[in-house]
Each structure stands twice: as C-alpha cells, then as structure tokens.
Amino acid sequence: METPHFNTYRWIRIALFNFFILAIAGLVLRYKINFPLPLLNQKFLLHGHSHFAFVGWVTVALMALMVNYLVSQGTQTNYKKYDWLLVANNITAYGMLFTFMAQGYALSSITFSSLSILVSYVFIYNYWKDLRKIKNEQHTLCWFRAALILWALSSAGAFTLAYLMVNAVKVQDYFFAAIYFFLHFQYNGWFIFACFGLLSAFFNIRYQPTLAKLNKKLFILLAITVVPTYLLSLLWLQLPAALYWTGTVSAFVQLTALLYLVKFFKYIKNHLLHPLSIATRYLWYLAFICFLLKVVLQCLSTVPYFSSFAFGFRPIVIAYLHLCFLGIISFFIIGYFNACFPQGQSLSKYGVKLFILGVILQEIVLMIQGLEMMGLHFLAHSQLILFVLAAMIGAGLALMAFKSGQKKSTANNIHSGH
Q1: Residue 153 to residue 77: CA distance in whole angstroms
Q2: Closest alpha carbon to 413 in 59, 72, 66, 76
Q3: What is the pLDDT of residue 122?
Q4: pLDDT below 50 — which residues of the chain?
Q5: What is the model's pTM?
Q6: Would you state the pLDDT for residue 313?
Q7: How many CB atoms lie under 10 A from the CB of residue 170?
Q8: What residues have CB less than 8 Å from 350, skipping those under 6 apart?
Q9: 46: exposed, middle or buried (C-beta count within 10 Å: 0-12, 13-18, 19+)?
Q10: What b/e sequence results for 346-378 when a residue is b if at least 16 CB atoms lie within 10 Å of its CB, and e otherwise?
Q11: pLDDT score at 411
Q12: pLDDT score at 235
C-alpha cells in the first residue's frame, strides 16, 4: 500500500511565515497611526491585514493540521489535491493582501475574496468525503464536521457584503450585520470547532472515557449556541425582545459549557499534559484562559450598560477581536505546532516568549485605551506603546518562522496524538 505523502512541516513553516507577514502589516498600521506615511492608505491596509489574517494565517494552519489528521488515521486519498488547495488558498491570501492594500474594495480584491471562498468550498467537499472513511472517531469527527459547516455558512456574510456594495446599498446597519455574521461564524464557528477537533485528536479522546463524556457535553452546548449567539453581535440594533432574549439565553447556556471545559482541561492538566514541553503547556493554558474570558465577556455584553461600551469604543472592539484571534486561536495553534515537532526540535523559545509577552501587554494597553475613551486617563503615549508591542510580536514571530526546528527530519508528517 502506498504511503500517503503530505509534508505537514512545510505547511507549518509557510503558515508561520504568513503570520510573520501579517505581523509586519500590523506593525505598519501602528507606525502609520504614530508617524506620517502618505504612501499607504490606512483603511486599505487594514482591509488587507484582516483578510490575510483569516486566510493566510489561521486557515492555512488549520487546513494543514486537519489534513495531517487524515494522514495520522491512515486515510487513503489523493493528498496532492490538498497540497494544490493549500497553494491556491495561499495565492488568494496574498492576492487579497496586496489588492486590498492598493485599492480597498475593488474588482480585483473582491475577485480574490470570491476565489478564496471557492477554494474553501472545494476543501470542505473533499475533506468531508475523506472524513467518511474514518471509523470509531466520532468524538473528533463531530467537531471537524461542524467546523466545515460553519466555515461554509460564514461565506454568506461575505457574499451579502459584496451584494450590498455592488448594488450601492447605503444602509450602514446592513453592512455591519453582514461583517459581524462573517466574523462570528469564522471566530466562533470554523476556528473554534476546528481547534477543539484537533485537541480531541491530539489526546486520542476515544481512549479516555472521562474526557469523551465531557467532550460530548461540551460539543452539544457549543453546537446549539453557535448560531443564536450571533445575535449578541447585533445588540447595537434595536432587536425585537424575542431575539434579544434568544441571544441572552444562548450566552448563559454557553457560560454553563465552561463548567465542562474547566473539568475537561483539568483532566488533561492532571493526566495528559506531562509529556508536553513547557512552552506548549503555557500556550494552551493561555488559550484556555482567553476562551473563558471571551465567554464571560459575551455574557456581560447582554447587559445594556456594558454593550454600549463594547460596541461604542473601537479599542475595546479591537481588544476583543485580538483576544479571540491571538489569545485563543493563535496561542492554541502555535502550541500545537510546538507539540508536534520531533524530539529535540521545537519552536524558538525566545520567539514564543516575545510573542506571548507582546500579545498580553497589547491586550492590557488596548483595554486601558478603552477606559481612556470613557474619560479615565491612566497611560500616556498608548499609541506609541502599541507600536513597540507590535514590533515585539513581529520579532517573536520572526524567530519562530526562521529559527525553529533547525535540525532536519526525515518524516514528512507530524503525529496527531499521544
């Protein structure tokens, strides 16, 4: 039987390099806030930065690790199709980065955006078919299947946005509703569910009866709340009472899911984390804490007093998005990358430390900025500090992208569990 070929390490390195490029774009954004840079349009660069973050970093990383899961299960399929899909995804990511930077929303950037969605559909179709070949792994497969469905669903937000632009619809509420739809089903759907699937696969949950029970309850609670919690993104609208209470109840149901998540993580900490490196442990601890914070903040946003702050102050919105994107998703993925390196290899320790410190300090400064906009002044020169922290994050990612796992390995694929 022919051994399936998929070079996961190559895609890990490409994903980390893309994350470094993303950090450079973020650094330029922070530079432009503090110093003159007339060559670049701030709004256009922001659009390029955000699109590249989703497609060039997180989606590349998750696609590669999910394909590696197929390899680890001995799934027989044509793995070259996944290489081509990742290449196509990468092309659309860089296409969006440069076209959005140059023109903002225009024919070229919308074309690359549409192509990236088309690539996602082809991946979803092929991956779903290959998942059907795997037996006795329902604890993991349920997460992956839900992730694929929610990934496809998120594209409705992007297509709605394109429709509004093409037809010159001027109602701003429609634009924000479409944007938040896309963000919600990417962050809280595709990204989160794929990460839980990877976590389940990594620890071989089907061989852990206690974890399997907790995993099932956690999945059910998150699955039934993922759609209605989109309404929390619309609390700035005058929602009918029925929709307001649907979103609010869903937020508190999700809060109960934290009880199972705490037990889940406590079991892993006590029984399964010991073989892992200190860096991976801390990255996953931080991802866990950030997830707890996210769910608690979602509940607080149902209170009108807090929701006025959450949607009214840009630094708080950015802090929340970065909490999800960097704190939960990126910490988890980088920890996963580090755990998967062969013995004797790892991500750059200094790079990981710089990245973690930069992200945590950035979150603190953004929250302080939010308080300043409420009339409380604690920190002078916060924008300049954020520029320095963006440089710290970029330096950490540069070390991870270029100085990690220098020793060559004969293996093309990484393991998916213990």
Answers
A1: 26
A2: 72
A3: 97
A4: 1-3, 408-412
A5: 0.91
A6: 67
A7: 8
A8: 396, 399
A9: middle
A10: bbbbebbebbbebbebbbebbebbbbbeeeeee
A11: 43
A12: 79
Three-class HEC string of the chain = CCCCCCCHHHHHHHHHHHHHHHHHHHHHHHHHHHCCCCCCCHHHHHHHHHHHHHHHHHHHHHHHHHHHHHHHCCCCCCCHHHHHHHHHHHHHHHHHHHHHHHHCCCHHHHHHHHHHHHHHHHHHHHHHHHHCCCCCCHHHHHHHHHHHHHHHHHHHHHHHHHHHHHCCCCCHHHHHHHHHHHHHHHHHHHHHHHHHHHHHHHCCHHHCHHHHHHHHHHHHHHHHHCCHHHHHHHCCCCCCHHHHHHHHHHHHHHHHHHHHHHHHHHHHHHHCCCCCCHHHHHHHHHHHHHHHHHHHHHHHCCCHHHHHHHHHCHHHHHHHHHHHHHHHHHHHHHHHHHHHCCCCCCCCHHHHHHHHHHHHHHHHHHHHHHHHHCCCCCCCCHHHHHHHHHHHHHHHHHHHHHHCCCCCCCCCCCCCCC
- The structure tokens 């998929």 sit at 6
pLDDT for the residue 374: 63
How many Cα atoms are found within 13 Å in the side-chain-facing hemisphere of 30? 24
pLDDT given for residue 284 in this prediction: 93
Tokens encoding 10: 């190559």
Chain centroid offset of residue 6 CA: 23
Token pair, residue 417, equals 């569990």
Beta carbons within 10 angstroms of residue 285's beta carbon = 15
**Of 6, 13, 4, nearest in space to 345 by CA:** 13
Confidence (pLDDT) at 144: 97
- Residue 49 one-letter amino acid: H
Reported as a single tens digit per residue, the pLDDT across 189-208 is 999 999 999 999 998 887 78
What the block records as the tokens of 169 is 């619809």
